[in-house]
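Narrative summary of target 7.
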Amino acid sequence: MSDEKLADFLAAGLNPAELPPLADLLQARGLINAFITLFHGNEEQVLVRLMVLREIGSRGQEPRWSPQQLEAHFAYVNPIKLRTVLGRLRENGLLLWDGDESLYQIAEVGRVALAAVSTLLAFSDQDAELGYLTAQAVGQQQLGRISNETLQHLLARLNELYKHFEDALESQSEYQIQKAQKRLESVWRWVQKGTEVIRDMFEDEALDRRVLDQVQAIGMAQSRILRLTGSFQRRLNQLQAQRVHLGASGLTSSDIGDWLRTASQAELAGMIKSMLRFPPQPIFATGQEMLDVAEFELIERERVAAQTVNLPDKVAAPAFDAPSSERLFEAESLHALLAGIVDPTSLASAALAATYPETAYRLSLFSLLGDAEAALEQSVVGDIVNLPLRLVHGAEVELLDHPEVAAITRGELKPQA
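Modeled conformation, tokenized:
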């Protein structure tokens, strides 16, 4: 694109070369044109171009190819399409042709574009953007060329994740909280890696002031996310106590909800097929009318039904929930163990149990030590939180010889005066 055409997108009288937001893009025109070459056209064309370029660049020992080698290697590609792809890559500077030796090789700009695509593909799983942005920050920090733009993207993604986790907690939905908790576990390693990078950046005295401000903001965002780990478990414990038990069956409303989520649409339709006496009729109403109908259906109808329905037959009180009972016994035994600590004790010796679930449960209780909100609970958990102990740990892990626990964070429990 020429400057004259680019000027058509701007206000009259502005020179694109003098516009700061366009300066970096104009300087990197060669690399941008390489990506335009790769990604111009429909999806099929883009995939074939990327495949051909990646295969040509896969030979590190012999980076140059003869036309015969290319035809043999890409025998599964239509010959006419292959020549078209090679011609486009060559015409736009991604491939170089050595006329003296009749050999192809990838150009410098093509190698850079290929390396960028390879890095992006390495982070193609869920929450890849946080890993990709963290990897960029790590690489730039190692090279001593930290980009303020990269740090801004990393900060924005951390704030988006925190908002997602916070919304899950405020939803009071056990399903949403468990889903958010699993997502936090999936991005945990990237948050830890980002913490290491931030620590190294703070020790760099040559950092620009703007970059240092971004680094400080990223550190605060990571701290906010790390503080949510205990909040998830506390909220799940509260919801556990509020579950509705269905008679003496042992099932709860959460169990029914989890089971219904695993059913397909066809199975759900089959369940309600015999329950609907008439097909649903669409009704168009204003917001106020919908609110009145919802109030009647959710409150008044249930209130009338509760007044007229007969009492159910007497049923023996359900037995104490087995999993909750086991957790109570584990918490009581852990309280007895912690109450006897008088000297600094390693985290591994205090938390390690016979099974992984029990070890994880102990660690979740350790994270509550010193928590003012959890200390108000009138239970054995509140007794544990009020013990004069302090948890101290770092980023290192300790490898274990255990049948179910491979490693644990290195740390210790210290008694307080």
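The chain has a mean pLDDT of 78.
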